[in-house]
From TrEMBL:
PROSITE patterns: QOR_ZETA_CRYSTAL (PS01162). It comes from Nitrospirillum iridis. Residues 11-322 form the Enoyl reductase (ER) domain. Signal peptide: none annotated. It comes from the Bacteria. Pfam families: ADH_N, ADH_zinc_N. CDD domains: QOR2 (cd05286). This is NADPH2:quinone reductase. GO terms for molecular function: mRNA 3'-UTR AU-rich region binding; NADPH binding; quinone reductase (NADPH) activity; zinc ion binding.
Length: 324
């Protein structure tokens, strides 16, 4: 019998239960996956707590890698035995096996093992759209990336550095600062003891940066606006400290005719072509060593609650994988 983590009510990590589930056979356009590695992401916390609303009960998890066990009717480009990964088809990832739409699957190349595949897709594709599409970073620009030692941050900072940018990253400790510097950050700011607005202005000779990438939310939003240069872009793509809430858009005018966007990965990879083209760019960056994926923590899937506790207490760095 297949097991999965299920949530019957929203709340703390304790609401996640290890239960038997029925998977069934794939229908039209679906495959059945035997999952070998499951990615842990902060969006899983948002789902568990109810910040992101979903019908209950549910199986959390947005990202995993595995092997195709069965293929339903009308599936053209996926076959039994293929190694694949996914990160955009909704919840259901915290399971030993599951059904999944074939057109949202990504073939994993030979040079990418399953744990790396499960750790890199959601975070790596997020870094891809942020740096290449939301605000296309150009050589010589200086950027600010919050949570630089997190999963998205470590990938994005490496990639931005490879693109020729100067990277400023905020982190919560000296240990995380060292890790961020080893992964592309030219300047690190320990926000627990430093004023990051003042430090950014020092680093940029008072000019500020053309873009801030902010996944923290409530605690950093308004200070991040103060880090921007005239006509700068505020990219608010997460809520780790809580939602930003209502914003008086007049502030964008008074602080320098700023731009503000709240993007999501789903908006940038809505089609199969967009998804797979972006994934191919990511794989190329990893296989060429421009970006290294570092799986720094693993937990048994049945111990997902412990993984969530570590993630929310900011005890994790880089990527974390749950193993079925």
């Amino acid at each position: 019998m297949v097991h999965a983590i299920r949530i019957h009510q929203t709340g703390g990590p304790e609401v996640m239960k290890w239960e038997e589930v029925s998977v069934g056979e794939p229908g039209p356009g679906q495959v059945r996956l035997r999952q070998t590695a499951v990615g842990l992401n902060y969006i899983d916390v948002y789902v568990r707590t109810g910040l992101y609303k979903n019908p209950l009960p549910l199986i959390p998890g947005m990202e995993a890698a595995g092997v195709v066990e069965a293929v339903g009717p009308d599936v053209q480009d996926i076959k039994v035995g293929d190694r694949v990964g996914y990160c955009t088809g909704g919840t259901g990832g915290y399971a030993e096996a599951r059904l999944y739409p074939a057109d949202r699957l990504i073939h994993l190349p030979d040079g990418i093992d399953d744990q790396t595949g499960a750790a890199m897709l959601l975070q790596g594709l997020t870094a891809h759209y942020l740096l290449h599409r939301t605000f296309p970073v150009k050589p010589g620009q200086t950027i600010l990336f919050h949570a630089a030692a997190g999963g998205v941050g470590l990938i994005a900072c490496q990639w931005a550095k490879a693109m020729g940018a100067t990277v400023i990253g905020t982190v919560g400790s000296d240990e995380k600062a060292e890790l961020a510097r080893a992964n592309g950050c030219d300047h690190t700011i320990v926000y627990t003891r430093e004023n990051f607005v003042e430090r950014v202005k020092q680093i940029t000779d008072g000019q500020g940066v053309p873009v801030v990438y902010d996944s923290i939310g409530k605690d950093t939003f308004y200070q991040s606006l103060d880090c921007l240069s005239r006509l700068g872009t505020m990219v608010s793509f997460g809520n780790a400290s809580g939602p930003v809430g209502a914003v008086d858009i007049g502030i964008l005018n008074t602080k320098g005719s700023l731009f503000l966007t709240r993007p999501s990965l789903g908006g940038y990879v809505a089609t199969t072509k967009e998804l797979r083209d972006s994934a191919n760019d990511l794989f190329a960056a990893v296989l060429s060593n421009k970006v290294k994926i570092d799986v720094r923590q693993t937990f048994a899937l049945k111990d997902a609650a412990q993984a969530h506790i570590a993630l929310e207490s900011r005890r994790t760095t880089g990527s974390t994988v749950l193993l079925p």
